[in-house]
Amino acid sequence: MPRLALDDLYRLAVPSDPRLRPDGGAVAYTLTTVSRDSDENVTEIWLAVPGAEPRRLAAGSAPRWSPDGRTLAFLRPVEGRPQIHLLPMDGGEPRPLTRAPLGAGAAVWSPDGGRVAYAAPHGDPDPSAPVVADTLEFKADGVGLLRGLTTHLFVTDVATGETAQVTEGGFHAGEPAWSPDGKRLAFTASMAPDRDLAPESAVYAVDAGAQPSGEPERLTGPEIICTGAWWLGDRLVVAGLPATVGHTRLYTLGPGGLEELRTGLDRNVMTGAPGYPGATPARLGDDLLFCARDRGSTHVYRLSGDGPALKIAGGDLTVSGVSVAAGRVAYVAADPYGPGEVYLDGEPLTAYALADVELFTPRARLFTAPDGTRLEGFVLRDETREGPGPLLLDVHGGPHNAWAPAFDGAHLYHQVLAARGWTILTLNPRASDGYGEAFYTAAVGAWGLADEQDFLSAVDTLVAEGVADPDRLAVAGYSYGGYMSCWLTSRTDRFKAAVPGGCVSDLTSMSGTSDAGALLKTYECAGDVAAQSPMTHVSQVTTPTLLLHGEADDRCPVGQAEQWFAALREQGVPVRLVRYPGASHLFPLNGRPSHRYDYNERIVAWLEQWVSGSPS
Length: 616
What we know:
The protein is about 15% helix and about 35% strand.
């Protein structure tokens, strides 16, 4: 069989957001494919039933079953804005339910099925008016300048289409959760006046049947930074961080306040976000299901009573989405052989892996840093080749993310390079997720300083083993990985090529221009940004460098790449800057297919040119 090529980007079908029908007999999910013709990511709603081939239901995303299972709500664009549509499962065409001026969020059905709640952008921004800022919350990656936009909660009557806005004010409301009696909505929000300077978020509740009136009721205090809230049966489950940098934990809210659920795990709870797999907690009988990261992979755990939590879906799976109904469990998980399948009670219902392409599979490896710290990484290579060859060290973002052994559709260049004789090392250094909270926080206030030797010593090990050629080494990475690519090339000349993507080069300017810069400076970098900035050592760089950056990146603004580009150009170092118009920070994951293809293609070409000696 042929090896994977970059053109296979246009054949990948990736399921997500599985939703079990209330009777447990079928799973609706979103299927995302890439269109070469329209340069768009295509999302469709599909239905999987045991014993039958999955079938397409409609164009759209974010399926949500009504409580009786007779109607499926989902999102579909109308005039470029996502709106909630309703699809009757006994026949008929979808009908639009909402007409939100700026688009609606995913539907959340009331317990009786008569209403749908959702979060949606609110405001009437004038793109030509001056932008006035009194706090640092004036822009957000993926949105751009907010111009007074906020996010609020709305409730729409399913029968009449009448809509009520139930929150208002200068804050952003998180996704709503219905109380069991259908009278109130719980949500998370940050309302402190100085929340742009110190992280703060609490759980609030609001009357689901009233127009906005007064302040929502605050349900939690300052003891944790709340990141999500869900009514599971008669208890409100809350996710939150007890400190500014650390693991997310689960709590229940009762008359006495918050009580932490004792999972018995020193692991980070993963509730799911772009680039960060996981799922919202779910109720299975009297037990609680949740996702947590373990050694890079994201697994499903079941918590009964006082615990400890037991793993029910693990191994090399990376889970992103869990749904429970009628005592059954559905989830989507990627593995080393494909980007994801839909599972029901542990059995796959789909087959989206590229059956006609042979993949290289990563092998887990343990390394030891000079200070004795044990590190895990994954080595991807053609194991039939003998002797040392070129090595790419690829650094993950975060820094509190992690590489997993599952197939990675966002980094297709790994497979392409492996077919050309490269070895790819994806290391989980200190600060990575999945190895305990002490490991997770080990680089706070010491970016680069704490983890530099983790990378270099792992490379040394592969060189000593005869896997890597010391004269053919390269480094790449995105976001924090882009930062580390700049950092390492400013500290050593052993890398013959570097590809920083979405990079951070100067933490001083980053702290004043990123949408999260002030918090990063204060908490992640502990204020001492100069010592942790690659720009401090830029004069030492000699490595040919390719910079790849989205022009609309507000998390790691494009000026970070411009500064590095200018400095290297002035020093006579071979350097190239590629800017992707309209692309936000996450474009390698969900941006325009042409941009994602170009991103992968340029990495391969640059590395082959400067390390293997092939023409660009």
